[in-house]
Amino acid sequence: MNKLVVNNLKASYQSVQVLHDVSLTLHEGETVILLGTNGNGKSTVMKCIMGMLKSCSGEIYLERDGQRIDLLGKKTHDIVNMGITLVPEGRRLFPYLTVKENLVLGSYPHHARGDVDENLDYCYEIFPRLKERHRQISNTLSGGERQMLAIARSLMSKPEILLIDEASMGLAPVIVRDVMVQIGRLKDQRKLSILLTEQNFNQAIKIADRGYIIVHGSISYEGKNKDELMGNDLVKKIFLGIE
Question: What is the pTM of this model?
Answer without folding.
Answer: 0.92
